[in-house]
Amino acid sequence: MIQSVAFIGLGAMGYRMASHLPRHFDTVYVWNRSFEKAKQHATEYGTQAVELSQAVQADIIFSCLPTSADVAQLVENLELKPGTIWVDCTSGVPDLARQLVTQLKNQGVDYLDAPVSGQTIGADNATLTVMVGGDFTAFERAYPAMQAFGKLIKHVGESGAGFAVKAVNNMLLAVNLWSVAEGFTTLKAHGVNLGEALDCINASSGKSGVTETIFPQRVLNRSFPVTFALPLLAKDAGIALDLVHAAKLPAPLIALTQSLIQAANQTAEENSDFSAAVKMYESWSKITLE
Amino acid sequence: MIQSVAFIGLGAMGYRMASHLPRHFDTVYVWNRSFEKAKQHATEYGTQAVELSQAVQADIIFSCLPTSADVAQLVENLELKPGTIWVDCTSGVPDLARQLVTQLKNQGVDYLDAPVSGQTIGADNATLTVMVGGDFTAFERAYPAMQAFGKLIKHVGESGAGFAVKAVNNMLLAVNLWSVAEGFTTLKAHGVNLGEALDCINASSGKSGVTETIFPQRVLNRSFPVTFALPLLAKDAGIALDLVHAAKLPAPLIALTQSLIQAANQTAEENSDFSAAVKMYESWSKITLE
Amino acid sequence: MIQSVAFIGLGAMGYRMASHLPRHFDTVYVWNRSFEKAKQHATEYGTQAVELSQAVQADIIFSCLPTSADVAQLVENLELKPGTIWVDCTSGVPDLARQLVTQLKNQGVDYLDAPVSGQTIGADNATLTVMVGGDFTAFERAYPAMQAFGKLIKHVGESGAGFAVKAVNNMLLAVNLWSVAEGFTTLKAHGVNLGEALDCINASSGKSGVTETIFPQRVLNRSFPVTFALPLLAKDAGIALDLVHAAKLPAPLIALTQSLIQAANQTAEENSDFSAAVKMYESWSKITLE
Amino acid sequence: MIQSVAFIGLGAMGYRMASHLPRHFDTVYVWNRSFEKAKQHATEYGTQAVELSQAVQADIIFSCLPTSADVAQLVENLELKPGTIWVDCTSGVPDLARQLVTQLKNQGVDYLDAPVSGQTIGADNATLTVMVGGDFTAFERAYPAMQAFGKLIKHVGESGAGFAVKAVNNMLLAVNLWSVAEGFTTLKAHGVNLGEALDCINASSGKSGVTETIFPQRVLNRSFPVTFALPLLAKDAGIALDLVHAAKLPAPLIALTQSLIQAANQTAEENSDFSAAVKMYESWSKITLE
């Protein structure tokens, strides 16, 4: 029976994810490097902003940080209590997941890689998808806690599998984003009505999350709202490519897309949304996607 | 007021599309190069199998042939009556659409490029998407006839625009097919449960028509049902790339995908479904997607 | 026996190529759209600057214009005398070569596509390579005239073959330029001494014209002298890709390189040398090749 | 003053490289896993086939093994004498070079990564290029020994730099091999005479080691002599790509080529020369390069 939970890392996603916890658990600790944010969260949602050393005494510890390296650094000097489950919702690196499993096992703690998808709106509505790698018993024990913010919660394999699925998902997002940019630029160059074309494709075999939501809601209306930063997509694309190479696989489309996204990230304005990767392509074509 | 319609080309799609016409129109002519098929259609659906010269006396002529070149060849020696609208549902070439417009205008006939998507199941259920290029008044006049088999019917631009949208749609299908093959092969190499991964991605930003239907219904179950032949996808990918070049655009992902699909087509078994393009990738990775 | 020759198009290459003709032929006509240049050439080299209509009365007519379209336009209204050979040194389009052959045959004139390589220094020294397509007898008759500026003069096939070889050569140049940029950027990122690395590679299997001359003489010394304009390389890369598609071949590396060169051309400063294509890559890597 | 040298690894390259050592040094030990080969070498060239433990007592130890991992495994259990220099001519991994430096420094031994290029003919003629990374003083001390088989011997940077240059060289070889295959297939499809085209390109800006030697001597004559195995080129291409990723660089051409070479290796016959990678492309194009 889970009595207490903690949420570490109150960024755009974590802040929202943690907001649902008080409805399900008596004790909810929150912690954030910029501690003001933790205090604000406590005020807003009735959580408890506490020292990190206290937070990690919870039965379930959630973390949601920018990178796996941030999690590893945090874990380094912590003393945890045996029986705890650390559920890491970071979009992280499979190899580091396996390292953390080994490291935390020494303290009797289970580690699950449990990245989420669904963006800020999914975090608001507690309808996130959670893709979980690691020990199956730990997964089952942590399941009720993940239900606080997740709708589809899947055990996809051993440690690192969750991170792998997330990385591949985001790589496919990148492939779709760039290829739709190429395709729609081509259509625009030929005088096609992009709005009508989008409707047709969304009812056809070429549709994707990008044609259904990203293009209409972010690109074609030129809003590019910064809800998922381009450097993070570039990082995830890199993780996906590392998986490809670790398995010694050829993967021409993934490899090319990773290069393009990395280049787009290098040439983008500060603080760009991932969808703004199309702007590098626009600089090549001299055609604006609107 | 449309009194009579004709349907030319009773292949996998055309046969089904024409089956709905008798419910809407008094006179429905059908014609097919292998004429037995036309007679079979007449028997089955109450259409009239007639000579081509008679069929083309209908108010609206639909055609659905393998390529634009087939349509052009057919049109060459026909005498049409002024006021007819030719609605060409072939997945064709934009440049040829414009040629046919000019050619048919001499006989007082309007030509619309009106390719469809939705595959055989959409043709069965009359829920096809129809993407139409050409004269807007002709589009409006032909609209009721297209409703016999179409659900979403859109005017996407001038002549050739319909073909362009279809070609780009199918190119995106090809991009998605190949990139999902790369991504899922990578996941399998890392021991991830593909079924669960698919569920997660289908609830996430990387989803596409390929992850939602093609992969579960054709690839992962190893069925590869031949409903849309690989050579036709290769042809459509070539049309899309031609559009890219005609507009003098760089398009690295589209160009690479076209090469891969063309190579997959060259090395595939006879009579392969488009989804069997993944088999070339499987020969590279030595991993079967199942 | 060749009595008179003409040279049409006195650009960077043509001006130098025509300078050798007076040493070999009694009558040498020159013509240039900006006629001042023709007069300057006459003064400098003892050629005769004449009206176009007179120039084309020569036994052998050389042309060297920016594009095949320029040649076609020029030819349109000319009256030529039967027995003339038109030797087109433009880096042109194979299809247009075949059109010009047909067109000029009506006037009893042979047309050879005869693009050159060797850059301005080769034109200065009369050591150009001439790759010739077209009728073999015409090739043999024009051979002595081409020797005025060419060292290696080869009949590579039927009409268009010369243009095809030139386009493929320039595409390989583009592939080499970009891949060497990627490779040397990688070496620099790892602290390798680029000059020593270049020496090693130039004695090894990975060497190319780019490692031997272009990189040391244009890129690493940051000179980028404008002797072969980037838009012309982009044009030639496009011709090469058109050949690929006309033959319905997959060609992933050529296709990708064409996209990259086209993008580099679109984003380059005005009046860039082809070697400055690497600057787009530098904007991606944030590493300068020096 | 170097008194004794050893050569470990008598493969196609090592066997020939070691053959020159007796002309320069009084004591030359050789060792090979299949010891018969060492004895054969001793008989043929007057070297001494000895136990590994004795061989490594030489002043300079050369090694030339298939992979860095083989070298690392060998070094693990050896006792070396301080002051020795280990000159590793393997085409290896930069990261492992740095590991070996650290490991051998504990025994007072210097390690240089010193891969060679020039193939078996260069090994026969002692005209190899040696690209060396590591301590400069050690480089200078080992220089005379490397002169026994090397002609151009360059210090290209710190530890790992030699391996990096070799990997990039071989990656450029792979890029050139594949792109020339695409280009010449295109020319053949258009009826161009490949031999004449090769002569033209070899006198032009698109030339490379591949057009100058690999294509005429291995591909177009269909000999594909197995002097450098395709799996080794695939391995080197992988090392190059790892360098790209370690530096977080985009590199679309390198990434694509690595995928193609890896796929070619996966689908090749056993015991293929690297040049046989073109056969995968031939299976796509249905055109034989001859």
From TrEMBL, chains A, B, C, D:
The active site is at K166. SUPFAM superfamilies: 6-phosphogluconate dehydrogenase C-terminal domain-like, NAD(P)-binding Rossmann-fold domains. GO terms for molecular function: 3-hydroxyisobutyrate dehydrogenase activity; NAD binding; NADP binding. It is an enzyme of class 1 (oxidoreductase). InterPro entries: 3-OH-isobutyrate_DH-rel_CS (IPR002204), 6-PGluconate_DH-like_C_sf (IPR008927), 6PGD_dom2 (IPR013328), 6PGDH_NADP-bd (IPR006115), HIBADH-like_NADP-bd (IPR029154), HIBADH-related (IPR015815), NAD(P)-bd_dom_sf (IPR036291). Residues 160-281 form the 3-hydroxyisobutyrate dehydrogenase-like NAD-binding domain. Keywords: NAD, Oxidoreductase. The keyword Oxidoreductase applies. Its EC number is 1.1.1.31. One of its GO terms (biological process) is organic acid catabolic process. Residues 5-157 form the 6-phosphogluconate dehydrogenase NADP-binding domain. The keyword Oxidoreductase applies. Belongs to the HIBADH-related family. This is Putative 3-hydroxyisobutyrate dehydrogenase. It comes from Acinetobacter baylyi (strain ATCC 33305 / BD413 / ADP1).
